[in-house]
Design a protein that fits this description.
By secondary structure, the chain is α+β, with helices and mostly antiparallel strands. It is rod-shaped. The chain has two domains: 37 residues; 69 residues, OB fold (Dihydrolipoamide Acetyltransferase, E2P), CATH 2.40.50.140. α1 packs antiparallel against α2. It has three helices and five strands, in the order ααβββαββ. The chain has a five-stranded antiparallel β-sheet, with no helix packed on it. Bound molecules: copper (II) ion (CU). Copper (II) ion binds next to β3.
């Protein structure tokens, strides 16, 4: 669809140009660019699902609670620059990490965004921040 709009626009602006209306030609091009700019697909059917973030982010925090039924730890974490502010939140962990977790211990870990939410990986105990 966009190439059609673009071609039609170019033809129209060329026509205006030949008719010695260069200003009109520019106006037509600007209008078309505005239309194309708004034509970006925004519906969920056209946009890929939220991509998993392949990059992990270093995180420091304290295990506030262990929630085996959710395979998650409630962690009070420091700010993760560029990712999220300091907060207390549920973070998913794998079974060995869950089993090894101790309440009220400081941790360092890698925060990873997956398609099903935020995960903590490489969890190690550390002095509480
Ligand atoms: Cu958070």
């Amino acid at each position: 669809m966009l190439p059609d709009v673009f071609n039609a626009t170019l033809l129209t602006s060329l026509r205006f140009h030949r008719m010695k209306h260069p200003r009109l030609a520019i106006v037509v091009i600007l209008l078309a660019l505005a239309v194309i700019g708004q034509a970006e697909p925004t519906c969920t059917c056209c946009v890929a699902p939220p991509a998993a973030d392949k990059v992990g982010h270093p995180l420091r925090g304290v295990v506030v609670a262990i929630l085996p039924e959710k395979s998650a730890l409630l962690v009070k974490h420091e700010e993760v620059p560029g990712v999220m502010a300091a907060m207390t939140m549920l973070l998913k962990v794998d079974a060995p990490t869950l089993a090894a977790a101790k309440k009220n211990t400081g941790i360092t870990a890698t925060l990873v965004k997956k398609t099903d939410g935020w995960w903590l990986e490489s969890v190690q105990s550390a002095p509480a921040p």
